[in-house]
Amino acid sequence: MNDRWGPCRTCRYFASPSNAPEDEDRARCLHPVHSRLDLVVTGASGCTGWELRPGLAREQAESELQEQPPA
Description:
Largest sheet: 2 strands, antiparallel
């Protein structure tokens, strides 16, 4: 896990069929720790298990990482 919080919409574990998921999209979380819970989350959700979604620019996605979840 990371020490920073990242949004699901830019995470590789967000199982959205979209190439560019939006905040309101809903999909399963396939993170190895979370997948056993069968979680369905929105693109605006997030956690510290974030990893860059394939096809996204690292600089853009990493600019969205935060030290803590939004209030």
